[in-house]
Design goal:
The protein has 173 residues and is of the alpha/beta class. The chain has one domain: Rossmann fold (3-Layer(aba) Sandwich). It has five helices and six strands. It has a four-stranded parallel β-sheet, with helices on both faces. It has a two-stranded antiparallel sheet with strand order 2-3. β5, α4 and β6 form a beta-alpha-beta unit. The protein is globular, with a radius of gyration of 16 Å. The structure holds magnesium ion (MG). The site of magnesium ion has 6 residues, from loops. Magnesium ion binds next to loops.
């Protein structure tokens, strides 16, 4: 069975920390969006680079792609089409921004739960050493790769290379 690739949007695909710069980062397009709940005030600016979609599709031979984002199912409506991605399964968080054990990020406990013993790679800008430690102790023993992505930069070539190499290094088991 292929490992899961759990994909956060804000940070890895939308380098939101670069939004304040005068110039849109190379390769990116600035979109204005109104997802559910974003009704008041100005629309939400989102930076997206279609090359990310190509890179993710290239990884789909090695991984099962899953959205792991607060956009939840709306990722398939607002984000995926701009990247040329088909609708993907998503983690339906039981609770968002809620309590988390041992100083971990709130998503971490649910990521482990969702993976349910399957090996997984996870890209997110909020991963820290605490999450790696917690997954090591409380995971099911399945292998995992937690990649912290700089939200000023987003996913880049070395990240995709690291994801491909990790999946290949695991063999086909
Ligand atoms: Mg994020």
């Amino acid at each position: 069975m292929k490992p899961l690739l759990l994909i956060d949007i804000d940070g890895p695909l939308n380098p939101y920390a670069a939004l304040s710069r005068r110039r849109t980062p190379e390769g990116y397009t600035r979109h204005l969006m109104r997802p559910t709940g974003w009704t008041a005030g100005p629309a939400l600016p989102v930076l997206l680079d279609p090359r990310h979609g190509e890179e993710l599709l290239a990884l789909a031979g090695r991984y099962e792609l899953i959205w792991a984002t607060t956009w939840k199912d709306e990722a398939n409506e607002w984000i995926g089409p701009h990247l040329g991605l088909p609708p993907l399964p998503y983690i339906d968080w039981p609770d968002m921004h809620g309590a988390a054990p041992a100083g971990t990020y709130w998503k971490t406990q649910y990521v482990v739960e969702y993976a349910a013993g399957r090996p997984f790679a996870w890209v997110d800008d909020e991963i820290t050493e605490r999450d790696r430690a917690w997954v090591g102790e409380h995971g099911t023993g399945a292998e995992s790769l937690l990649l912290q992505i700089d939200p000023r930069v987003g996913l880049e070539r070395p990240d995709f290379d690291a994801l491909a190499a990790w999946a290949d290094g695991r063999g086909s088991g």
